[in-house]
From TrEMBL:
This is ubiquitinyl hydrolase 1. Residues 1-26 form the DUF3645 domain. Transmembrane segments: none annotated. It catalyses: Thiol-dependent hydrolysis of ester, thioester, amide, peptide and isopeptide bonds formed by the C-terminal Gly of ubiquitin (a 76-residue protein attached to proteins as an intracellular targeting signal). PANTHER family: P-LOOP CONTAINING NUCLEOSIDE TRIPHOSPHATE HYDROLASE PROTEIN, UBIQUITIN THIOESTERASE.
């Protein structure tokens, strides 16, 4: 997929977060760039050297292909680590759950609800990275890993965050900070020298390290953390179950030998409290607690994924209606011959394929009251 910008956080609520816009940007990216001259030459040379019949293969490459044909069956295969978005799959793509993995979700939730994970803190309003690190460093139990899925550390680069955390940490216990720089794992020591993780002594001394994973790298990253490690998990607005669970799973032994503590900004804390109060019944009110528990975080996360799924279903329904309308317009064309010479049908097809705007220009820019 095309990446419109590089940042520590992904603007889910911006125009770049819309799935249709992301697809269009990806297509435009490939259309505008295409293959470079060296890439074309390399491709043709490989074709000529390694294939027994390069001519026929080249003819297949340049031949037309109707990717919209209904006769193209079983051409899509995918893999997903979660099943939360299966309702948003196209109707011709069913989800198949492996029997041995059907209990995975329940096991993960069970591990999250262990008593040792009952650690939650709400951060002050507009807390910066220094204030967040202060909460982490002053925690009763030493925190070795920061999983920043909420993208709260946005006022500095990963290297700057590493230096701040080293300066605030205990010199008798921590020697290095591990983080990502340009998608590579690097290490910063107390002299603020940076080097590759794989050639650093820190790779053999994770017990003497702080590990900071920014939002992008809280998925698909695997460290073999020593037993007894505690991770600080940040939370952001609209956090969904798949992102939350994927982040927690960076601690491969969580619930058994790894533990979690949760940090939320003030606005997220208010959302969790609102979610909790909405679930209170007269019976529950008698036994309610004045603190946020892990079950409250999980239920808030489930509400977010439910809301996101409904939004996705609305988009899916709108796209389906648009597709059907265009197909009806396409089939109504009177095809004259193979050269597709037709009269005003093309103009009608263009008109029928247009998407209706929510507001017209007159509605947007006209004054509220006319004299």
């Amino acid at each position: 997929m095309a990446v419109p910008f590089r940042a520590k956080d992904i603007a889910l609520n911006s125009e770049f977060g819309h799935s249709d816009v992301a697809i269009v940007l990806t297509q435009l990216s490939y259309y505008y760039s295409g293959l470079s001259d060296p890439q074309i030459l390399q491709c043709l040379n490989r074709l000529n050297e390694e294939e027994t019949n390069p001519t026929s293969i080249y003819e297949q490459w340049i031949s037309g292909e109707n990717v919209d044909s209904n006769s193209r069956a079983k051409i899509i295969t995918g893999f997903s680590g979660t099943n939360d978005t299966q309702l948003l799959l196209p109707s011709h793509i069913p989800q198949s759950d492996l029997p041995e993995l059907q209990k995975t979700d329940a096991l993960v939730v069970n591990n999250l609800l262990t008593p040792n994970n009952e650690n939650y803190k709400s951060l002050p309003k507009r807390a910066n990275s220094k204030e967040i690190l202060k909460h982490i460093v002053e925690n009763e139990s030493m925190i070795n890993v920061i999983l920043d899925v909420g993208a709260l550390f946005v006022d500095g680069t990963n290297h700057e965050i590493a230096i701040r955390s080293l300066n605030m940490s205990n010199k008798d216990k921590i020697d290095y900070d591990i983080y990502f720089e340009s998608d590579s794992i690097v290490v910063c020591d107390r002299q603020h020298q940076q080097q590759s993780f794989f050639t650093s002594p820190a790779s053999e001394r994770l017990d003497r390290c702080l590990i900071y994973l920014d939002e992008v790298h809280t998925r698909g990253t695997d460290f073999k953390f020593p037993n007894g490690f505690l991770a600080a998990v940040t939370m952001g607005d609209g956090l969904t179950k798949d992102r939350f669970v994927q982040e927690c799973m960076r601690m491969r032994k969580f619930g058994l030998h790894h533990w979690l503590t949760f940090l939320s900004p003030n606005d997220v804390d208010q959302q969790i409290w609102t979610s909790k109060r909405n679930r209170w019944t007269e019976t529950i009110k008698r036994f309610r607690t004045n603190q946020i528990n892990t079950i409250d975080i999980l239920l808030w996360v489930y509400e977010n994924i439910q809301r996101k799924t409904w939004d996705g279903l609305n988009d899916l329904a709108a796209q389906s209606m648009s597709y059907q309308r265009k197909m009806v317009a396409y089939r109504s064309i009177q095809w004259m011959n193979e050269q597709q010479s037709f009269s005003e049908d093309l103009q009608q097809l263009t008109t029928d394929s247009l998407e209706a705007e929510v507001l017209s220009l007159m509605q947007i820019y006209s004054p509220w009251k006319t004299p």
